[in-house]
Design goal:
The chain has 361 residues and is mainly alpha-helical. It folds into three domains: 5-64, lambda repressor-like DNA-binding domains (434 Repressor (Amino-terminal Domain), Orthogonal Bundle); 78-180, Alpha Horseshoe (Serine Threonine Protein Phosphatase 5, Tetratricopeptide repeat), CATH 1.25.40.10; 203-360, Serine Threonine Protein Phosphatase 5, Tetratricopeptide repeat. 70% of the residues lie in helices and 0% in strands. The protein is built from 18 helices and no strands. Helix 10 (153-166) runs antiparallel to helix 11 and helix 13 runs antiparallel to helix 14 (235-250).
């Protein structure tokens, strides 16, 4: 309950243009008493509160100015989320109140765990981190209530491991991450932790598999963004995201050795050319198509689908790339050009491809 009695006494008095002395005379108290009420240094007796409410022509409830919080379950969860976003330390006390009121709620337990974890890391407060561990374990036991598809037992174990790292209990964290690393979800965290703790050689396979996963996800993410921006006719953003991706993937070339990303970049360069062409940048589009043509020819002359040919990635058992985008890099470019459904863009590509044929002659 939030009381606003002091503020309201002052507000009602000023609305009636009364001085503290005049109000004290009306109530039969000293001016010092009124001063203390308005300063929040003391609270009037109940009979005086009733008398003041009558004097100000209002109700006791309004004079007290209290506001009862919405303590229903969903409102409580939203309030805890607000404390976490604002990094408000008052949230810790509210968390304990919520846990007492809803001791068997997954949503409350997980939000309180996040609060304690956040403050534990920021303040390097081991007590907060220990409390976060308790609450994460409670959340795990209550997981059957969860309706958020982003949360699973696996992700909760990842959060628990992160807290163990904050407590410098590295071995526990790594053991937990390894035990729940389905789909390589924690490869990056395991590799990083091992490398930071003098176990570099053990870290490398995890880092390599993490890099493969990152590259694969980045390819689909960039293509997804490209489709979104092109549907909005936001060709500037399409050019920007494609340029970022191409630069990153070409940076993973190991010397002059072809690798699978050359095939991918051939297609991305063709997509970039399409965005440039639609932006009226015909010369830039031609240059991108020529780069795509040359890179495709380089890859198709000695194609490699072994992911270990990509820089930074060590040999991985079964580590071969597969796709359905075309048998060759040249096929990928043709597919992108046809997908653009533009006769003018297709003609531009035919001109760029023909230039290569003439050069070969």
């Amino acid at each position: 309950m939030q009381m606003m009695l002091a503020e309201n006494i002052r507000r009602f008095r000023k609305e009636r243009t009364l001085t503290q002395e005049q109000l004290s005379e009306a109530l039969g108290v000293t001016p010092g008493a009124v001063y203390k009420w308005e300063a929040g240094l003391s609270v009037p007796e109940l009979d005086l509160i009733v008398e003041m409410a009558d004097f100000f022509d209002t109700s006791v409830d309004v004079l007290l100015g209290y506001g009862i919080k919405d303590n229903r379950h969903d409102a409580t969860v939203r309030r805890l989320q607000g404390y976490r976003r604002k990094k408000d330390p008052e949230g810790l006390a509210e968390a304990e109140k919520a846990l007492k009121k809803y001791p068997n709620s997954f949503a409350v337990a997980s939000e309180c765990a996040a609060l304690y974890s956040g403050f534990g890391f920021e303040r390097r407060d081991r007590a907060c981190l220990r409390r976060a561990l308790d609450l994460l374990e409670r959340s795990r036991l209550l997981l059957g209530q969860n309706t958020d598809p982003r949360i699973s037992e696996q992700t909760l174990y990842g959060e628990i491991a992160t807290v163990y790292l904050g407590l410098d209990e590295t071995d526990k964290a790594v053991e937990l991450l390894k035990a729940h690393n389905a789909g390589g979800l924690f490869n990056h965290a395991i590799g990083h932790t091992l490398a930071q703790n003098g176990r570099e050689e053990e870290a490398v396979p995890f880092l390599s598999e993490a890099m493969v996963k990152i590259v694969s996800e980045l390819i689909t993410t960039i293509l997804g963004y490209t489709a979104v921006y092109e549907s909005r006719r936001d060709y500037a953003s399409a050019r920007a995201i494609l340029g970022c991706g191409i630069g990153f993937f070409l940076g993973l070339r190991d010397g002059d050795t072809p690798n699978y990303l050359d095939k991918i970049c051939s297609g991305l360069l063709a997509c970039l050319a399409g965005a440039q062409f639609l932006s009226g940048q015909e010369e830039e589009a031609r240059a991108s198509l020529e780069k795509a043509r040359d890179l495709a020819a380089f890859f198709d002359a000695s194609p490699s689908y072994d992911v270990s040919d990509i820089r930074f990635i060590t040999p991985i058992e079964g580590g071969s790339a597969y796709d359905d985008i075309g048998a060759t890099a040249a096929d990928v470019i043709d597919r992108v050009v046809k997908g653009a459904e533009s006769a003018a863009f297709a003609a531009l590509w035919q001109s760029a491809a023909k230039k290569e044929e003439n050069t070969d002659e």
